[in-house]
Amino acid sequence: MTTHKKEFILVLEEVNKSFEGFKAISNLTLYMDEGELRVIIGPNGAGKSSMLDLITGRTKPDSGKIEFGKDTDLTKLNEARINQLGIGRKFQTPSVYTDHTVFENIWLSLHGSRSVWNSLFSRVTSERRDRIYEILKTIALDGKADWKAGALSHGQKQWLEIGMLLAQDPKLLLVDEPAAGMTDEETHKTGELLLSLEGKHSIIVIEHDMTFVRQIARKVTVLHQGTVLCEGSVDAVQNDDRVKEVYLGRKKKN
Ligand code: ADP
Ligand code: MG
């Protein structure tokens, strides 16, 4: 056992994953501090979403170490168990209960069981109500508590889903391309939301939009061909010759 583990919320060491001979993840090593907001960038197909699949147990690595907190070996656990440990994932497309109100969506998520039936027939205690409104404030939807989730804009649905994850009080929050399909204003608000979570949760944000990355980035990790190409401040990675080469001839948002 090495001593460095204690300081990290997440450790990936020499992780490999192939799909029918194609190496999606290749000797991937990454360390994340507790409370850190980490941005991951990289061209399409770089392995960003595959990395999240491995962390959340959706897929299993062929080799390598994936550890959460002090000593929890995530490669040995299934997806449900990993979620219970406090790892929440926001997929690219929002999945909210469109026929339920914004309030009910958060309420349903507060129940560990996620049982819609049990949730709907349990009483809303004042304590729970306060917690729901606290989350609604965080995601700037407190004024829309009674709206059907289906009536929200795309951006608002994304925030609601982040709120639903927050209701489970995750230690580590994984957010895959939250700004995709958002207006500039929604993108900026999403940045503010993520920044407000920094310190309270450890967060990995995968993103293409460099304006957005600039807004929220502390340490940026650049993935390329399933491995870390470079890591550092936004300026450092944007000025890195290897990064320039990888993005050369590509559209800026790619
Ligand atoms: P990114 O999110 O960086 O755009 P992905 O992680 O989605 O990239 O994909 C990396 C590569 O791995 C792609 O070539 C993709 O087709 C492949 N891949 C990812 N997941 C699977 C899977 N479950 N089965 C087969 N191939 C996959
Ligand atoms: Mg992806």
How would you sum up this structure, described in words?
- The protein is an alpha/beta fold and 254 residues long.
- It has a domain at 2-93 and 172-181 and 202-253: Rossmann fold (3-Layer(aba) Sandwich).
- The protein has helices at residues 48-55, 79-84, 102-110, 116-120, 126-138, 154-166, 184-197, 210-216, 234-238, 241-247, and strands at residues 8-19, 22-33, 37-41, 63-68, 72-73, 87-90, 172-176, 202-206, 219-224, 227-232.
- A six-stranded mixed sheet has the order 6-7-8-3-9-10, with helices on both faces. It has a four-stranded antiparallel sheet with strand order 2-1-4-5, covered by helices on one side.
- β1 (8-19) and β2 (22-33) form a beta hairpin.
- α3 packs across α5, α3 packs parallel to α6 (154-166) and α7 (184-197) packs parallel to α8.
- The model has no long low-confidence stretch (mean pLDDT 90).
